[in-house]
Design brief:
The strands form 11 sheets. Strands 22-21-23-24-25-28 form a 6-stranded antiparallel beta sheet. It has 79 helices and 28 strands. By secondary structure, the protein is α+β, with helices and mostly antiparallel strands. The chain is flat, with a radius of gyration of 46 Å.
C-alpha cells in the first residue's frame, strides 16, 4: 500500500515506452498478468509506477462525462462510441486488472471461497417482502429475508410477513439484533474458524486499483453536480449523471457481494485517510484534478458548510461542560428578537446567510451548535462518498452499495461515525428536497441498520455526541416553522409554537429524524446518558414547548368558518411522534427504584419549562374564553413521569410536586380540554366545522388516548388530590358553565350558556367528575388489570375481531418499549374475558369474520360504563354497549326492564392519591348533589335521567369511600365551621345525608313563580330566617366565596396580583343588563338527601310509599351486604342500594330512614305548571304518542317486508318453493295472469300490450369447465405443475366441431352439434313481471336519474323495481295459458307411425313471422339482446360468415345451455326431483317461445331434415356416393342427439302437443341407443367383438330381437365390420381398450350411462313445457324412472327382474334396416379416414360437475411462488400479480405491459376464459376480485388467519389458511351465476384491470 501511495504522489510519471497505447486495448489480460508479476516482486516500485500510469490513462477524468453533465447536446453527439464506450472500456480494464490476468469470473469464485459469511446482510429496497419474528428479535426492527426465514425454525413463534416500506437488510446471523436460536441453517455456524487465510496475491491488484477507481467515481460525482438554480429543481440533471454512473456503482456493488475478503479490502480503501489526502487534495499540476477540487469546495460552501482550514477537526471535541447554559441563553435572547422571524423566512436558497440569520433568532451562537450545523471536513473516501450520496439525494444504488458493506465490522463503525458526522447536513438536505418522501425512506433505510445495534449506538453517542447532534438538529428543523402563539394573551404572548400548516409538519418531513431518535433512546445505555445530561434535558424541554399549545382552536360564535383547516392531522401526528414516542422511550428505562434520579431530573426541567410557558403566555388564573388547544405535551411529560415515579420507583409523590399555586395553574388547561369536549359534543362548536369533532375524536382515539386524555385526567386527579376540594369542585362547574343552573329556583338565568346546551353540559360535568373519581388507570391498577379493563370496555361496545382488538387497545405507542401487541398476556386475558365466535356463512349473506364476544360473567361482574364512556370515539358506542348489556340481562333473566349502567367496585387507590376522595366529602359537592336531587324531584327543566344516574353514582362513590372514623355522637361538630356556610354541618357525606335543610334563599327573576308565592308570608319567613339565619345560604354565593377565599390564600404575599384578579372574578356573575331583574326569595325546603332519595324512589316507581326498608324484614341484609339482586337494575334498584349502604354506614342513618318511611309521606306537592310549561308538556306527550305510532307502523312494515323477502328472495332453498304465477291447481284452461310490478295491474299478456319477465342475460363458460375426471385440478404452485385445458368440455366440443367441419358439409355440421359450452347465453329471472311499455318508461326515468348507479342504463341494465335484483332485459310472455295443461290431459291413441307423419308435416310448414304486433317487435328485440350478450367468436362457427345456419345453431344452443346449466344447478342429475330448484325463477317456457318463433323462420330443406333419416329408409343406398367432389352430409350416428331433440322441438309450431313430443323422444332414443352400441363396440377388444357378434346372431330371430341389446350389438358389429372402422387396430389403440372383461352388467351400465344425459335434459324440457313434476328417485334407478316419466317405457312393464335399457326402444321402422342404413354412412366415411371416424364415435358423455381449482391449505405456498413470478410478456415481476381460479392462468392486474387495444390483461382474460366473468385471486392482497362484464367487485378472501379473519392486502402478515366453506360459497355463486345478485358493491372497471 505504501508503495502505491508513494507512486501516486511521486511527481511527473516517467513515460512507458514498452507499452504502446493500441497494444493496451488488444491484450488486457497479458498486461494485467505482467503488472501483477511486477508487483509481486519484493522491489515493486517500478510495477507500481507502471500501474499508476496505466490507471491514470484508463480512468482519466477528461472523459465525455464532463461534457455530458455540462451540456446535453455534447452527450448526444458524443464522438466515438458515445459517452458509454469509454466507460465500458475503463470497467473492462478494471476487471482485468483485478483478476491479474485470469478470467474475471474465476477470480470472483476464488474470492468467494474465502467468505467467512456469518451474517446474511442481504439488502433490499422498498416493497420487498420480508419477515419479522418477535419471538427471536432482540431489537424490534429485526427483519429477515424470506429465504433465511424459511430455513430457520419459527414454528409457533409470533412472526409476521411485511412489505418493507423504506427498504432494509436481513439480520440473520447478527446476535446483537436477534437470538441465535432463530438463525437459519446457513448462518448458524460460526464459520470464521475453518475458513483458510486469504492468499496475499489474490487481492493484491485490488488494493492498487480500487483507490483510483473510487477516486475516479468521486471525480465524476464532483463534476456532475451543479448547484440547482433557485427556481428549478435539478432532479433531471442529477438523474442523468446517476444514469451514466450506473455501471460503475453496480461494479462496486458486485464487489461487495464477493464476500468478506473483498469487503475488507474495500473497507481499507474507503477509510484510509492517507490515500484520500494524496489523491484528492487538488495539489499537483493536473488541471482536471484542480478543477474537480474547486467544484468540491463550491459544493461544500453552497451547502452552508464551512471547510475549516485550521486544524480544529469537526469542532466536536470541545468539552461539553457549557451545554446547560446553551439553550437557556438562546431562548432568553430569542424572545426579544421575535420580530425578525418573519423577515428571514425565505427559503434557504441563499445558503448559510439565511440559516445564520434565522438561527440567531432562536439559538445562541455557541460554537458547539454552529459546529454541529455548519462544519464538515472530509478525511477519507467514505466520508466524501457519503457527502455526494446526500447531495444527490440518496440514489438507491449508492445506498445499496453503502449498506452492502455493513457486514464488515470495521466498516460498520467507520460508516456509522461518518453518518453521524453528516447528520446535520442530511437533515438540511432533506428539508430542502422536493422528493422528501423517497429521501426519508432511504435515510431511514440506512439509519435503522446503524442505530438498532446497542453497542454501536453507545459508541457513537460517547465518541461523536450523537445525542447532542440529534437534539440540536431537531431544534433547528422545527425552528424554521415557528409562529407566535395566540393562546391566552394574543397581544403580549412571548411563546412561539410550530405552525402546523407548514410543509415540514404537514408532510411529516421530520419523521426520519424522530424515528432515529426514538430508535437510539430504546437502548438503555444511550437513554441513561440523555437522562443524566441536564443540558440536553433543558434543550429537549425547549423543543417540546414548541408543540405546547399548537393548533389553537377559537370558537366561532357568529358565522360558519369558511375554510375548514385540516392542520389537526399534522398537529396530532407531531405530538405523538415528536413528543410522546420519545417520552415513552425514556419512560421504559425508568422502571426501577435505582432510576429515581432520572425522574427527578425530567420533572424538574419539565416544571421549569411549564413555568416559563405560563409566564410567556401571561397566564394568571383564568383561561381565555372560547379557545382550546388539545396539545399540552409538557403537561403530559410531567404527568407520565409522576405516574411512573409512584408506580415503579417508589418515589414520594409530594417530593416531586410543586406548590399549590403551580398546581392550580397546571389543572386549568387540561380541565379546559375536558370542558371543551363536552361543548363540542353539545354542538356548541358547530360553526367551526367538522374538523373540531375530528379533533375531539382523535384525542380519545386508541392510538392517541394513552398519550393524551389519560395523562390529562391523571394530572387532574393529582391536582384534585392536593388542592382544596371545594375549590376544585367549583372550578369544574364553572369551567363547564353550569354554575347558574345549580339553584333551587325553578327558573334561572345563565349568562354564559344557551338554554339548549345546559342539559348536555351538566351531564358532561357530572360525567367528568365520575370519570375523575372512579378511573384508576394510573392510580394503582397493575398492567394486567389495565389490559383487562380496556379489553372488556372494547368488547362491551361491539363484538370485535382479534386484529381490531389489538388495534383498539392502547398499547404503549413507542414500538421499542418491549410491550408487544399479541404478547402472552394479551392472549391469556382475551381467553379469560371473551368467547370466540367462529365465522358463520349464510349463503347470500355477508361474509362473517371470526369475532370475540364477552363471556356472560364479564357482563355480570366486569361491565364498566365509566371505562366505556372514556374510550368511545363515537357516542353511539356507549348506547351500543348499554343495548348489549340490556339484552344480556333480559336473556339471562336477571332484569327484564331497561337497566341503568351498573355500579362497579373499583380497585383500591394507591396511598399517594388518597386525597382524591376528599372531593366526595366536600360541602360544595354535597350542596350540588342536594340541589340536583331536589330539582329532579320537582321536575325542573333541563334535567335528564343521565343527570340523576350520575348524581346517584357520585353519592354511591362517596358512601363506598367514606372516612371510617365517623362517630355517632353528633355533638362534636365544631362550632366555628357552622357559622360559615350552614348548609351542612360537616364534610362527611354519610352524616350530611341525614342533615335536614329547611329554608334556602334564592335569587330568582321577578317573573318566577316563587316570588309570587312567598310575598304574603313574608313575616313568617322573616322570623324563620332570624331563627335559621345561617341556614339560608345558597350555592352560588358559596362558589364565589370559595374562590375569593382561595385567591386570598394564594395572593397573600403579592397584593398587586389580587388587584388583577378581583374584577375578573366578580364580573363573572353580573348579569347582562337586558335580563329581567333578579330578586331574592326564600324557599321552604325541609328535606335531607335521604328524604329526597326516598321520595325519588316513590316517584320512579310511581307508587306511594313504595320504599320499605329491607332490613326490617330480614336483619341478615345488614350483615352480608353483597346481595346479587342489587347488582343490576334501574333507578329504583340504585336508590335502594344507596339507602342500604347509607344505613350500613351509620346507625343514625338507618334510624332516620325508618322514620321517614313511617311518616306516611304526603303526596309530592303538585307543581304549579305555567302555561308555557304545560305547552311543552303537551308537546312532549304528543311527540311520545307520535313516536309510538311510528314504531308500530315500522314494525308492521318490517314484518311485511320480511314475509316478502321470504317469498321473493330464497336463493338457495329448494323446498317450500311454490312456483309464483303458475296456476297448476285449476284444471280448467285459464289464461295466465301476470302482475306488473310497476303499475300494479294484473292481466294476461296480449299481442298489443305484452307483459315480460325481468331477466338477466349473461354469457357463461361454466359448462365448458366441466372435466371428465373426478380428481379436481390443483392451482399450480411450482414451475412443474401446469394446467392444460384440453380435457375440458369446451375443448373437446371444439375439437369435435372442427373435425366434422374438415370432412363434412358445413351446413350439415352446424346441425350436428351444439355450441355455447363457452360463451353460451344463460337467462335467469327473479320471477317478477312487468308491462313492456311500463318498463320502457322506467328505463327512461333511470336514464334521467343523476344518482350514480352501480350499473349502466345505456347498456339496458336496471334493477327489478320490486326486489332490486340486477337485470338487463325483458323476456316477453307468450299469450295463452301458461301451462298447456289441456293438451296433455287426453293422451292420443294414434300409432307412432301417424305421429311421425304429423311431426314431419308440421315441421314442413314454413313459419311466417306473425304480423307486426308489439309482441313480435319485443320478441325480435329480445332476440337481439340475446345475441349481443355474447361475443361474436362464440356465435360464428360457420365457414361462410353470416350464414343463416349460424343463427340457427346459436338459437337452439341457447336452449341447450340453459337446460344443461339447470341440470348442473340440480347437482348433475334429477334424483331430487320435485319442482325446479329455480321454481318460479325459471323462464325456460318463455324463452322457448321466443326461440321457436325465430327458428321457424329458417325452414330446413326437407331433403336434409334429419327427421327423414331417423324415420324412413332410403331406397337407394349407393346414390349418395355419386357426387364425390361435394363434401358429404354428417352421418346421422355422428349427430349429437340432444341437439337433434332441440332442433325438432323448436321447429314445431308452438304450443307443442304432448304426444308429438313423446314421439320425437322415442325416435331419437333409438338413434341414441344405436350410438351407444357403436361406441361400446369400438371400445372393446377384437376378441370380445367376435364373441358378441356370435352370441347376438344366435338370438336374432327371437320375438323381441329388436329390444335385446345383445342382438342389436352383434348386428352393429357385423355391419361396421364391412368398413374399415375396426381394422386400424394398432398398438396405440390398446391404450383405449379398457382392460376389464365386459360382463353383461357392466355393458348395461355403460349403455345406461351413455343415454342418461339425454334423458335428463329431455325430462327437464318436458317439465318446463308441460309443467309436469319430476319424480324423485335413488341414483341407481334414475334411468328407469326418467324413461317411464318420458313415456319410453311401456306402461305394462314390470320391474321385478333387473331393468334392461333396451326395453325402452320403440323402433319406428324395422331396426335392422335402419341400423344398417346408418352404419353404411359410417363405413363410407371410414373407407378414407378410419382414425377420425373412430374418434368421432367415442363421445365422452359423462362430464363431472364444474369446479374451481383446488387451493393449497396455507396461503404462503401461493404467495411465495406467485409474488416473485415474472410476467410472460415483459419478464418483469408485476406490481399486482393475480391468478385466475378457473383455469390457473397468471395475469397482471392493471399491468400496462400486457395491455391489448386498451384492455388490460385481467379484463381480457375474463372474456376469453369466462366469456366476461373472471374470478381472480390477487396475490399481494389475498383477496378475490370478480369481473362481470364491464363491472367488478371485491368479493373478499377465502384465506383466514387463526382468528377467523381476512387479512386484506396482507397488512398484518399473519399465516393464512384456506376456509373451505367460503371457497364453497364462491364456487356456488360462480356455478349458479349469482355474483350479480349476492354481491352488492359493484363499480365500473373501464377495462383497466
Amino acid at each position: 500500500m505504501a508503495a502505491a501511495a508513494a507512486a501516486a504522489v511521486g511527481g511527473p510519471q516517467p513515460p512507458q515506452p514498452e507499452l504502446p497505447a493500441p497494444g493496451l486495448a488488444l491484450d488486457k489480460a497479458a498486461t494485467a498478468a505482467h503488472l501483477k508479476a511486477a508487483l509481486s516482486r519484493p522491489d515493486n516500485r517500478a510495477g507500481a509506477e507502471e500501474l499508476q500510469a496505466l490507471l491514470e490513462r484508463v480512468l482519466s477524468a477528461e472523459r465525455p462525462l464532463a461534457a455530458a453533465a455540462d451540456g446535453e447536446e455534447a452527450a448526444a453527439a458524443g464522438g466515438g462510441g458515445g459517452p458509454g464506450a469509454a466507460e465500458e472500456e475503463a470497467l473492462e480494464w478494471c476487471k482485468c486488472l483485478l483478476a491479474g490476468g485470469g478470467g474475471y469470473d474465476e477470480f470472483c469464485a476464488a474470492v468467494r471461497a474465502y467468505d467467512p459469511a456469518a451474517l446474511c446482510g442481504l439488502v433490499w429496497t422498498a416493497n420487498f417482502v420480508a419477515y419479522r419474528c418477535r419471538t427471536c428479535g432482540i431489537s424490534p426492527c429485526m427483519s429477515l429475508c424470506a429465504e433465511c426465514f424459511h430455513q430457520g425454525d419459527h414454528t409457533g413463534h409470533d412472526f409476521n410477513m411485511f412489505r418493507s416500506q423504506a427498504g432494509g437488510a436481513c439480520d440473520c446471523g447478527d446476535s446483537n439484533v436477534m437470538r441465535e436460536s432463530g438463525f437459519c441453517k446457513r448462518h448458524q455456524i460460526k464459520s470464521s474458524s475453518n475458513i483458510p487465510c486469504v492468499p496475499k496475491d489474490l487481492l493484491m491488484m485490488s488494493e492498487f486499483v480500487l483507490p483510483r477507481f473510487i477516486f475516479c467515481l468521486i471525480q465524476y460525482l464532483r463534476e456532475g453536480y451543479n448547484e440547482p438554480a433557485a427556481d428549478v429543481p435539478s432532479e433531471k440533471d442529477l438523474n442523468k449523471v446517476l444514469q451514466l454512473l450506473e455501471p460503475q456503482i453496480s461494479f462496486l456493488e458486485d464487489l461487495t457481494k464477493m464476500g468478506g475478503a473483498m469487503r475488507s479490502v474495500l473497507t481499507q480503501v474507503l477509510t484510509n485517510q492517507q490515500n484520500y489526502k494524496d489523491l484528492t487534495s487538488g495539489l499537483g499540476e493536473n488541471a482536471c484534478a484542480k478543477k474537480s477540487h474547486e467544484k468540491y469546495l463550491i459544493a461544500l460552501k453552497s451547502s452552508g458548510l464551512t471547510y475549516p482550514e485550521d486544524k480544529l477537526v469537526y469542532g466536536l471535541q470541545e468539552p461539553s461542560a457549557g451545554t446547560s447554559t446553551l439553550a437557556v441563553q438562546g431562548f432568553a435572547g430569542a424572545t426579544g428578537t421575535l420580530g425578525q422571524l418573519d423577515s428571514s423566512d425565505e427559503e434557504d436558497q441563499d445558503g448559510s446567510q439565511g440559516l445564520g440569520k434565522r438561527k440567531r433568532v432562536k439559538l445562541s451562537s455557541s460554537t458547539k451548535d454552529q459546529s454541529i450545523m455548519d462544519v464538515l471536513k472530509h478525511k477519507s473516501f467514505l466520508e466524501e462518498l457519503l457527502f455526494w450520496t446526500i447531495k444527490y439525494e440518496f440514489p438507491q444504488k449508492m445506498v445499496t452499495f453503502l449498506l452492502n458493506m455493513l457486514p464488515d465490522q470495521e466498516y460498520k463503525v467507520a460508516f456509522t461515525k461518518t453518518f453521524v458526522q453528516h447528520y446535520a447536513f442530511i437533515m438540511k438536505t432533506l428539508k430542502k428536497s422536493h422528493e422528501s418522501d423517497t429521501m426519508s425512506n432511504r435515510i431511514v433505510h440506512i439509519s435503522v441498520q446503524l442505530f438498532s445495534n446497542e453497542e454501536l449506538a453507545r459508541q457513537v453517542t460517547e465518541e461523536c455526541q450523537l445525542l447532542d447532534i440529534m437534539v440540536t438538529v431537531l431544534l433547528y428543523m422545527m425552528e424554521s416553522c415557528l409562529i407566535k402563539s395566540e393562546l391566552q394573551d394574543e397581544e403580549n404572548s412571548l411563546h412561539v409554537v410550530v405552525n402546523c400548516g407548514e410543509a415540514l409538519l404537514k408532510n411529516n418531513t421530520y419523521w426520519p429524524l424522530v424515528s432515529d431518535f426514538i430508535n437510539i433512546l430504546s437502548h438503555q445505555s444511550v437513554a441513561k446518558r440523555f437522562l443524566e445530561d441536564h443540558g440536553l434535558l433543558v434543550t429537549w424541554m425547549n423543543f417540546v414547548s414548541f408543540f405546547q399549545g399548537m393548533n389553537l382552536n377559537k370558537r366561532e360564535l357568529n358565522e360558519h368558518v369558511e375554510f375548514e383547516s385540516q392542520t389537526y392531522y399534522a398537529a396530532f401526528a407531531a405530538e405523538l411522534e415528536a413528543c410522546a414516542q420519545p417520552m415513552w422511550g425514556l419512560l421504559s428505562h425508568c422502571k426501577v427504584r435505582e432510576t429515581q434520579e432520572y425522574t427527578r431530573n425530567v420533572v424538574r426541567y419539565c416544571l421549569e419549562a411549564l413555568q416559563d410557558w405560563f409566564d410567556a403566555i401571561n397566564f394568571v388564573d383564568e383561561p381565555a374564553p372560547n379557545q382550546v388547544t388539545f396539545h399540552l405535551p409538557l403537561h403530559r411529560y410531567y404527568a407520565m413521569f409522576l405516574s411512573k415515579a409512584v408506580k415503579c420507583q417508589e418515589l414520594d409523590l409530594d417530593s416531586v410536586l410543586p406548590d399549590q399555586e403551580m398546581l392550580m395553574k397546571l389543572m386549568i388547561h387540561p380541565l379546559q380540554i375536558q370542558a371543551s369536549l363536552a361543548e363540542i359534543h353539545s354542538n356548541m362548536w358547530v360553526r367551526n366545522g367538522l374538523q373540531i369533532k375530528g379533533q375531539a375524536m382523535t384525542y380519545v382515539q386508541s392510538h392517541f388516548c394513552n398519550s393524551m386524555i389519560d395523562p390529562d385526567i391523571y394530572l387532574l386527579q393529582v391536582c384534585a388530590s392536593r388542592l382544596d376540594p371545594d375549590y376544585f369542585i367549583s372550578s369544574v362547574f364553572e369551567r363547564f358553565k353550569v354554575v347558574d343552573l345549580l339553584t333551587m329556583a325553578s327558573q334561572h338565568q345563565n349568562t354564559v350558556l344557551d338554554a339548549e346546551h345546559e342539559r348536555s353540559m351538566l351531564e358532561g360535568a357530572l360525567t367528568f367528575l365520575v370519570i375523575l373519581l372512579s378511573l384508576r388507570l394510573h392510580l394503582g391498577m397493575s398492567d394486567d388489570e389495565i389490559l383487562r379493563a380496556e379489553m372488556v370496555a372494547q368488547l362491551c361496545m361491539n363484538d370485535r375481531t382479534h386484529s381490531s382488538l389489538l388495534d383498539l387497545i392502547p398499547e404503549n405507542p413507542n414500538p421499542k418499549s418491549g410491550i408487544i401487541p399479541g404478547s402472552y398476556s394479551f392472549e391469556s386475558v382475551l381467553s379469560a374475558v371473551a368467547d370466540f365466535k367462529a365465522p358463520v356463512f349464510e349463503p347470500g349473506g355477508s361474509m362473517q369474520q371470526g369475532m370475540y364476544t364477552p363471556k356472560a360473567e364479564v357482563w355480570d361482574q366486569e361491565f364498566d360504563p365509566v371505562m366505556v364512556i372514556l374510550r368511545t370515539v363515537y357516542r353511539r358506542d356507549v348506547q351500543s354497549a348499554m343495548d348489549r348489556y340490556t339484552a344480556f340481562l333480559k336473556q339471562s333473566g336477571k332484569f327484564p326492564g331497561n337497566p341503568w349502567p351498573p355500579y362497579k367496585k373499583r380497585t383500591p387507590l394507591h396511598p399517594s392519591y388518597k386525597g382524591l376522595m376528599r372531593l366526595l366529602h366536600c360541602k360544595t359537592l354535597h350542596i350540588v348533589l342536594f340541589t340536583l336531587l331536589y330539582k329532579i324531584l320537582m321536575d325542573h327543566q333541563n334535567l335528564s335521567e343521565h343527570v340523576l344516574c350520575m348524581v346517584l353514582y357520585l353519592i354511591e362513590l362517596g358512601l363506598e369511600n367514606s372516612a371510617e372514623e365517623e362517630s355517632d355522637e353528633e355533638a362534636s361538630v365544631c362550632g366555628p365551621e357552622r357559622c360559615h356556610d350552614s348548609w351542612f354541618p360537616g364534610s362527611n357525606l354519610v352524616s350530611n345525608m341525614r342533615h335536614f335543610i329547611n329554608y334556602v334563599r334564592v335569587r330568582v327573576p321577578e317573573t318566577a313563580p316563587e316570588v309570587k308565592r312567598d310575598s304574603p308570608a313574608s313575616t313568617s319567613s322573616d322570623s324563620l330566617s332570624s331563627l335559621h339565619n345561617s341556614g339560608t345560604a345558597q350555592v352560588f354565593s358559596l362558589v364565589a366565596e370559595r374562590r375569593k377565599k382561595f385567591q386570598e390564600i394564594i395572593n397573600r404575599s403579592s397584593s398587586e396580583a389580587n388587584q388583577v384578579v378581583r374584577p375578573k372574578t366578580s364580573n363573572k356573575w353580573s348579569a347582562p343588563g337586558s335580563a329581567p331583574q333578579l330578586t331574592t326569595a326564600i324557599l321552604e325546603i325541609k328535606e335531607s338527601i335521604l328524604s329526597l332519595l326516598i321520595k325519588l324512589h316513590h316517584k320512579l316507581s310511581g307508587k306511594q310509599n313504595s320504599y320499605y326498608p329491607p332490613w326490617l324484614d330480614d336483619i341478615e341484609i345488614l350483615i352480608q351486604p353483597e346481595i346479587p339482586k342489587y347488582n343490576h337494575g334501574d333507578g329504583i334498584t340504585a336508590v335502594e342500594r344507596i339507602l342500604l349502604k347509607a344505613a350500613l354506614q351509620s346507625r343514625m342513618n338507618k334510624r332516620i330512614i325508618e322514620e321517614i318511611c313511617r311518616k306516611v309521606t304526603p303526596p309530592v306537592p303538585p307543581k304549579k305548571i305555567t302555561a308555557a310549561e304545560k305547552k311543552t308538556l303537551d308537546k312532549e306527550e304528543r311527540r311520545q304518542k307520535a313516536r309510538e305510532r311510528q314504531q308500530k307502523l315500522l314494525a308492521e312494515f318490517a314484518s311485511r317486508q320480511k314475509s316478502f323477502m321470504e317469498t321473493a328472495m330464497d336463493v338457495d332453498s329448494p323446498e317450500n318453493d311454490i312456483p309464483m304465477e303458475i296456476a297448476t291447481a285449476e284444471p280448467q284452461v285459464s289464461e295466465a295472469v301476470y302482475d306488473c310490478v310497476i303499475c300494479g295491474q294484473s292481466g294476461p299478456s296480449s299481442e298489443d300490450r305484452p307483459t315480460g319477465l325481468v331477466v338477466l342475460l349473461q354469457a357463461s363458460s361454466v359448462l365448458g369447465q366441466c372435466r371428465d375426471n373426478i380428481e379436481p385440478k390443483k392451482l399450480p404452485i411450482t414451475e412443474e405443475e401446469q394446467i392444460y385445458p384440453w380435457d375440458t368440455c369446451a375443448a373437446v366440443h371444439d375439437v369435435r366441431l372442427s373435425l366434422l367441419q374438415r370432412y363434412f358439409k358445413d351446413s350439415s355440421c352446424l346441425l350436428a352439434v351444439s355450441i355455447g359450452w363457452e360463451g353460451g347465453v344463460y337467462v335467469q329471472t327473479c320471477g317478477h313481471t312487468l308491462h313492456i311499455d311500463c318498463h320502457k318508461s322506467y328505463m327512461e326515468s333511470l336514464r334521467n336519474d343523476q344518482v350514480l348507479q352501480g350499473f349502466s342504463v345505456d347498456k339496458g341494465e336496471f334493477t327489478c323495481p320490486l326486489c332490486r335484483q340486477f337485470a338487463n332485459s325483458v323476456l316477453p310472455c307468450y299469450p295463452g295459458s301458461n301451462v298447456e295443461s289441456n293438451l296433455w290431459q287426453r293422451p292420443s291413441n294414434k300409432s307412432i307411425q301417424d305421429l311421425i307423419k304429423e311431426v314431419e308435416e308440421l315441421q314442413g310448414r314454413p313459419g311466417a313471422f306473425p304480423s307486426e304486433t308489439n309482441l313480435s317487435k319485443e320478441m325480435e328485440s329480445v332476440m337481439k339482446d340475446i345475441k349481443n350478450t355474447t361475443q361474436k367468436k362464440y356465435r360464428d362457427y360457420s365457414k361462410t360468415p353470416g350464414s343463416p345456419d349460424n343463427d340457427f345453431l346459436f338459437m337452439y344452443s341457447v336452449a341447450r345451455t340453459n337446460l344443461e346449466l339447470e341440470l348442473i344447478h340440480r347437482g348433475g342429475n334429477l334424483c331430487s326431483g320435485g319442482a325446479s330448484t329455480a321454481g318460479k325463477r325459471s323462464c325456460l317456457n318463455q324463452l322457448f317461445h321466443v326461440l321457436a318463433l325465430h327458428m321457424r323462420l329458417y325452414s330446413i330443406d326437407s331433403e336434409y331434415n334429419p327427421w327423414r333419416k331417423l324415420t324412413q329408409l332410403v331406397e337407394e343406398m349407393n346414390s349418395q356416393q355419386g357426387n364425390e367432389e361435394q363434401q358429404p352430409e354428417v352421418p346421422i350416428l355422428y349427430h349429437d342427439v340432444t341437439s337433434l331433440l332441440l332442433i325438432q322441438i323448436l321447429m314445431m309450431p308452438q304450443p307443442l302437443r304432448k304426444d308429438h313430443f313423446t314421439c320425437i323422444v322415442k325416435v331419437l332414443f333409438t338413434l341414441l341407443y344405436t350410438q351407444a352400441l357403436v361406441a361400446l363396440s369400438v371400445k372393446c377388444s377384437e376378441e370380445d367383438r367376435l364373441a358378441w357378434k356370435h352370441t347376438g346372431a344366435l338370438k336374432k330371430n327371437a320375438c323381441d330381437a329388436e329390444k335385446s341389446y345383445e342382438v342389436l350389438l352383434s348386428f352393429v358389429i357385423s355391419e361396421l365390420s364391412k368398413g374399415k372402422l375396426y381394422h386400424e387396430e394398432g398398438t396405440q389403440e390398446c391404450a383405449m381398450v379398457s382392460p376389464i372383461a365386459w360382463s353383461p352388467e357392466s355393458m348395461e351400465k355403460y349403455l345406461q350411462d351413455f343415454c342418461l344425459p339425454f334423458l335428463r335434459i329431455t325430462s327437464l324440457l318436458q317439465h318446463h313445457l308441460f309443467g309436469e313434476d319430476l319424480p324423485s328417485c335413488q341414483e341407481e334407478e334414475e334411468f328407469s324412472v326418467l324413461s317411464s316419466c318420458l313415456g319410453l317405457l311401456p306402461t305394462f312393464y314390470q320391474t321385478e327382474h333387473p331393468f334392461i335399457s333396451a326395453s325402452c326402444l320403440d323402433w319406428p321402422v324395422p331396426a335392422f334396416d335402419i341400423i344398417s342404413q346408418w352404419c353404411f354412412e359410417i363405413n363410407s366415411f371410414t373407407e378414407r379416414h378410419a382414425e377420425q371416424g373412430k374418434a368421432l364415435l367415442i363421445q365422452e358423455s359423462r362430464w363431472k360437475l364444474p369446479h374451481l381449482l383446488q387451493l393449497p391449505e396455507n396461503y404462503n405456498t401461493i404467495f411465495q411462488y406467485y409474488h416473485r413470478k415474472t410476467c410472460s410478456v415483459c419478464t418483469k415481476v408485476p406490481k399486482d400479480p393475480a391468478v385466475c381460479l378457473v383455469c390457473g392462468t397468471f395475469v397482471c392486474l392493471k399491468g400496462l405491459c400486457c395491455k391489448q387495444q386498451s384492455y388490460c390483461e385481467c379484463v381480457l382474460h375474463s372474456q376469453n376464459c369466462g366469456a366476461g366473468t373472471g374470478i381472480f385471486l390477487l396475490i399481494n392482497a389475498s383477496v378475490i376480485i370478480i369481473i362481470r362484464g364491464h363491472r367488478f367487485c371485491l368479493w373478499g378472501s377465502v384465506y383466514l388467519d387463526a382468528h377467523g379473519e381476512e387479512d386484506r392486502d396482507l397488512r398484518r402478515g399473519k399465516p393464512l389458511y384456506i376456509c373451505k366453506e367460503r371457497y364453497k360459497v364462491l364456487e356456488q355463486q360462480w356455478i349458479s351465476h349469482t355474483f350479480d345478485h349476492i354481491n352488492k358493491r359493484w363499480g365500473p372497471h373501464y377495462n383497466g384491470l
